[in-house]
Amino acid sequence: MTNKMPFLVGDTITYTKTLSESDVYLFAGITGDFSQMHMNEEFMKKTPYKKRIAHGVLTFALGSTASTLIQQQARSEMPSVSYGYDRLRFTNPVYFGDTLTAHYTINEVDEENLKSYASVEVFNQKEELCTVATHILKFFPIEE
After folding, report:
1. How far apart are the first and last CA of the chain?
2. pTM higher than 0.90 for the full model?
3. Domain 12-139 is in which class?
4. What percent of the chain has pLDDT over 70?
């Protein structure tokens, strides 16, 4: 076993998923967020969006999945936890049926503090940026 950070700057992974109506409804049930923006098609016809949109946090969650996948790809032996996200923004609406691709790219590896910093960018099928953030992972040395 090793206590070496598992990433290099530039390491990347993607995760793609089409968001269905049931994904949005299940997420609403889990979180309790039943906003009209997500649940009421007639209400949304009167807004600039014209139809229901997915929860921003649901679109953001795909970046969390990508974080897990990049750790699996690196075959990391060091345990880690999400230390947080900075500069999270929802830059475009996501509609039911949109296919989203989360790009997760390592931008910095801080060996001294055992942290990695990655850009999270979620694009729709039209290649429009919908969600963006910086993710920080905190690693822990393996105790022997």
Report:
1. 9
2. yes
3. alpha beta
4. 98
